[in-house]
Write a structure and sequence with these properties.
CATH superfamily: P-loop containing nucleotide triphosphate hydrolases
Number of domains: 1
Shape: globular
Helix content: 25-40%
Radius of gyration: 20 Å
CATH architecture: 3-Layer(aba) Sandwich
Distance between the termini: 64 Å
Length: about 220
């Protein structure tokens, strides 16, 4: 009796996660440490991180974006372990792959809105994609305001400019800190949809960190701190 041996080759495909954390915690000097849940976020997937004041939401955002060094644990962004990067390499990596939308607005006040966008495109590599700036400004309703100084913009226009600065370089992942905290219900929904739409256009993952429970209806993928 002849026996036939069938060999089945199994190919293991490595799945690259856009954001992956493990055993992450951080302690400010003299204070109790924050312990954060592990995150596994695939490319293009969005995540909402909810929690009340004082649980370390902004601290977590600063850890994920490499602004703060973790006390313990690892953080990988686009398969790069950022916890192993020195400050210079982290700044370059953040400038290329990460978009940040802060709760407070950070602009160069001596420049107009368009010049702020152009400046953001120049770091860490000089892209100077005028068409990208024009298209993004049009989608965000900023076209008529690009020549205005940022101090001349309304609060809503400044918010949209902040979003544009976080997206202009087409980052792999966008971290937004409390983007709806000062908005009414109608504008809350508009801003969340705008962020999701722009992230999809850029093929970016979007991570929103907030205490605003209204945002929860817009995200299936959620973590509560």
């Amino acid at each position: 009796m002849q026996l036939s041996c069938i060999y089945i080759s199994i190919i293991f495909v490595k799945i690259i996660l856009m954001v992956k954390t493990a055993g992450l915690n951080f302690a400010y000097p003299g204070e109790k440490a924050f312990h954060f849940p592990d995150i596994d976020l695939v490319p293009g997937e969005h995540l909402l991180i909810l929690g009340p004041s004082g649980v370390g939401k902004t601290t977590l955002l600063h850890l994920l974006s490499g602004i703060l060094p973790a006390s313990k644990g690892t953080i990988c962004i686009n398969d790069v372990e950022i916890t192993s990067l020195n400050r210079q390499r982290m700044d370059q990596f953040r400038g290329t792959h990460i978009g940040l939308i802060f709760q407070q607005y950070y602009f160069v006040k001596s420049l107009n809105a368009g010049e702020n966008l152009q400046l953001r495109q120049s770091f860490p590599k000089s892209l100077q994609d005028k068409e990208r700036r024009q298209q993004l400004a049009a989608r965000l309703g900023l076209t008529e305001h690009l020549k205005k100084k940022v101090t001349q913009l309304s609060q809503g226009q400044q918010q949209r400019l902040s979003i544009a600065l976080g997206l202009i370089h087409k980052p792999k992942v966008v971290f937004a800190d409390e983007p709806t905290s000062n908005l009414d219900d109608k504008n809350c929904g508009k801003v969340i949809q705008l962020l999701k739409d722009e992230a999809d256009i850029c093929e970016s993952s979007l991570v929103i960190i907030t205490h605003d429970q209204r945002v929860s209806q817009h995200f299936k993928n959620q973590i509560v701190l």
